[in-house]
Amino acid sequence: MRVLGASVLVMESLTLGFAVLLAIKDQSTVGIVYGSIVAFLVFVMAGLLKRRSAFYIASALQVFVIAFGFFVPSFFIMGAVFVGLWAAAIIVGRKGEAARAELLATQAEKG
């Protein structure tokens, strides 16, 4: 779950960074600073996913990613896509961890 979630967050951070570059031409410094801070926080959360609380913080940051759409309108759609990927990473990651734990348990019983 951690690796899948971290990969989604890193890609989200990179996409936000490129969107900030788009916003430089059209937006005020508020939009640029907002996007930069959110991109940085999302990137940091990717590294902190070892802790359970980082999943909650990263989930809360998804709202701020979608809100970046007020500065770059296409980010309403991109933010929704990344929220879907984030949810899928959590769901698929949990299933993968459960399957791995079951496999390790059966191997421990045999060996």
Q: What class, by secondary structure content?
A: mainly alpha
Calculate the terminal CA-CA distance, rounded to whole Å: 27 Å
Q: How many strand segments?
A: 0
Task: Show unreliable segments.
Answer: none
Please tell me the total number of domains. 1
How would the blueprint of this fold be written?
Elements: H1 2-26, H2 29-47, H3 52-67, H4 75-110
Keywords: Membrane, Transmembrane, Transmembrane helix
Transmembrane segments: 6-24, 31-49, 61-92
InterPro entries: DUF4233
Notes on the protein architecture:
The protein has 111 residues and is mainly α. The chain contains 4 helices and no strands. The model has no long low-confidence stretch (mean pLDDT 91). The protein has one domain. Helix content is 86%, strand content 0%. The longest helix is centred in the C-terminal third of the chain and has 36 residues, at 75-110.
